[in-house]
Amino acid sequence: MKWILSLLLILLAALQYRLWVGDGSYAEMARLEAAIERQRAENDKMRERNRVLAVEVRELKNGLDAIEERARLEMGMIKEGEAFYMLVEPEQEAR
């Protein structure tokens, strides 16, 4: 009878170990749920980035306004007959 009780206690300890520490434990489940949430946030950010890029591609394919805006902003291009003015602020003395 004593050996059955000992065997049951050992079995209970082994099952408790697996429940709290082993594969499929509560700690591992919490870690995996946190990783899933981080991945969902990253996916949402990438989905929004892709949406913005798709809109930009569509604008570049369909109209010259987007191409002109990009040339002006990124390359500093101007139209013929326009004057380019660059305002330079004076340097402040280091104190």
Describe, in short, the structure shown.
Residues 22-95 are periplasmic. By secondary structure, the protein is mainly alpha-helical.
Structure, explained:
The protein is mostly helical. It has one domain. It has 3 helices and no strands. Helix 2 packs across helix 3. The protein is elongated. The termini are far apart. The model has no long low-confidence stretch (mean pLDDT 85). Keywords: Cell cycle, Cell division, Cell inner membrane, Cell membrane, Coiled coil, Membrane, Transmembrane, Transmembrane helix. Essential cell division protein. May link together the upstream cell division proteins, which are predominantly cytoplasmic, with the downstream cell division proteins, which are predominantly periplasmic. It is a single-pass type II membrane protein. Part of a complex composed of FtsB, FtsL and FtsQ. It comes from Simiduia aestuariiviva.
By helix and strand content, what is the structural category? mainly alpha
Shape: elongated
Average of pLDDT: 85
Beta-strand percentage? under 5%
How many DSSP H or I helices? 3
Helix content: over 70%
Overall number of structural domains: 1
Main sheet makeup: none
Contiguous runs where pLDDT drops below 50 for at least 5 residues: none
Question: What is the H/E string?
Answer: HHH
* CA distance, first residue to last residue: 89 Å
Radius of gyration, whole Å: 32 Å
**Strand tally, please?**
0
